[in-house]
Design a protein that fits this description.
- The protein is of the alpha+beta class.
- Helices cover 38% and strands 17% of the residues.
- The chain has three domains: 183 residues, Phosphatidylinositol Phosphate Kinase II Beta; 210 residues, Phosphatidylinositol Phosphate Kinase Iibeta, Chain: A, domain 2; 36 residues, no CATH class.
- Strands 2-3-7-8-6-5-4-1-12-13 form a ten-stranded mixed sheet. Strands 10-9-11-15-14 form a five-stranded mixed sheet.
- The radius of gyration is 24 Å and the shape is globular.
- The relative contact order is 0.13.
- Its EC number is 2.7.1.68.
């Protein structure tokens, strides 16, 4: 009885806390602050952004307000629906737009956020205390859009339905792997959701961790797959944009290496093998190691983020005054849209970005000032900080990739250099590249990490 009363008391406290937080977030949403690409009136991604954040705020608040419990098998395939409109009901508050929201495996992602050390209130405030997102340019080859959270800690990425479906299928394996490997280099997923606009298509998206720390300028960025075909960013492109993401051949041409002493090298390669083994077992390929390099001697004096992150603040008050003076009747929504259309870009104040992110301390690869500091062969620290993470882990070796493999083997001489190969071969090549081309020293790494004929047993 006493235990039941304590649970009820905790539940009541949690609900009151999140009600206050919800009211706070609702009050803050009137003056939208958008970050990055200017979104003028009628831009569909403004509505998309609003719907994403509103849905996240309500869905995460609901599951976090409940008393914690153990996961069951049904949790991994669960899906909760929410409907939003201007009026609202007992489950959802009124919203500026009508849309439907679906929250997938909410209990699983609640437990994942806890394992990653993400505080639920922190998570909601970062994403939704004010609706600030930075759109990362135009969509990439996959057609996905990327958005930063207001403090640069989280990324929202739209994904294809097939990726969404595949993620749900592997979610239990991913969860079990993270539970056994708290220092995993795999991309950290915090939520899987879907929105649908009236008469519009369904849009699936994930919330995940930003590999790069908010407090450090990243001076060089590399996306390494261990393949060679098409894996070069032309030097003229690099000269135009020194902060562009470079690839495997750029890494080799610039003779870059990860400087890791014996202790850190062992941690890195052992975790890498465990993560790649899982990906191979799940029939996954086309992933890459994202490497960000921060020169600690240069620090932040280049002001990289000052030039790459911008905001614009819509001034709704001045618009409202002008409308009042003109005696023109209009809705609050129209006021916001007009303010967005007239807003001017300005640089973000990077001093307001968090210096220390608590959840990053829980992983050894983020423990050195939110990164993994280089060391020499005597394990002494060097003035270089690495940001490391395995990204793009939702691509199975399906019929599409098998067809791509067949086509490219027929049209290129370098059959081993193409990206679309079987997951076992992909994993072998990936590990070999890390041991031979990425690490500065590999004399103490077992031969099975370096020799093609010896790595197969990792993937049986």
């Amino acid at each position: 009885m006493k235990r039941s009363e304590e649970f009820q008391k905790e539940l009541t406290t949690r609900r009151k806390t999140f009600k206050r937080l919800s009211r706070l977030l609702q009050d803050d949403s009137d003056d939208k602050v958008l970050m990055g690409t200017r979104i003028s009136e009628g831009h569909r991604n403004y509505v998309l952004m609003y719907n994403m954040l509103t849905g996240i705020r309500i869905a995460v608040s609901r599951v976090t307000a409940k008393i914690d419990r153990e996961l069951v098998d049904e949790d991994f395939m669960a899906a909760h629906k929410l409907a939003f409109d201007v009026i609202g009901d007992e489950l959802t508050p009124g919203a500026k737009y009508d849309f439907k929201f679906k929250d997938y495996a909410p209990w699983v992602f609640r437990h994942l956020r806890e394992k990653f050390g993400v505080d639920p209130a922190d998570y909601l405030i970062s994403l939704t205390s004010k609706y600030i997102l930075s759109e990362l340019g135009s969509p990439g080859k996959s057609g996905s859009f990327f958005y930063y959270s207001r403090d640069y800690r989280f990324i929202i990425k739209t994904i294809h339905y097939t990726e969404h479906k595949f993620m749900r299928n592997i979610l239990k394996d991913y969860y079990n792997h993270i539970s056994k490997n708290p220092n995993s280099l795999l991309c950290r997923y915090y939520g899987l959701h879907r929105i649908k606009l009236p008469h519009g298509k369904k849009i699936h998206f994930v919330v995940m961790s930003n590999v790069f720390p908010p407090s450090k300028d990243i001076h060089e960025t590399y996306d390494l797959k261990g393949s060679t075909l098409g894996r070069l960013l032309p030097e003229e492109e690099v000269r135009k944009n020194p902060h562009a993401v470079m690839k495997d051949l750029n890494w080799e041409k610039r003779q870059r290496k990860l400087q890791l002493g014996p202790q850190k090298r062992k941690l890195f390669i052992n975790q890498l093998v465990r993560d790649v083994t899982l990906l191979s077992q799940l029939n996954i390929m086309d992933y890459s190691l994202l490497v960000g390099v921060h020169d600690m001697l240069r620090g932040n004096k280049d002001k990289v983020r000052d030039t790459t992150l911008q905001t614009f603040q819509p001034n709704t008050k001045s618009i409202q005054r002008r409308i009042t003076q003109m005696r023109r009747r209009t809705s609050q929504l129209q006021v916001v849209r007009e303010a967005i259309a007239e807003a001017n870009l300005r640089k973000i104040d990077v001093s307001q970005l968090p210096k220390v992110v608590r959840d990053r301390r829980n992983c050894i690869f983020y423990a050195d000032e939110s990164g993994f500091q280089a060391t020499d062969e005597n394990n002494r620290p060097l003035p270089v900080l690495y940001s490391l993470g395995i990204i793009d882990i939702l691509t199975p070796y399906d019929m599409k990739k098998k067809s791509e493999h067949v086509f490219k083997t027929m049209t290129t001489k370098d059959k081993n250099g193409i990206s679309a190969v079987k997951p076992t071969q992909y994993g072998q090549r990936f590990l070999e590249f890390m041991a031979c081309a990425v690490l500065e020293h590999n004399d103490d790494i077992p031969h099975e990490y370096k020799l093609k004929s010896k790595t197969k047993h990792f993937f049986k």
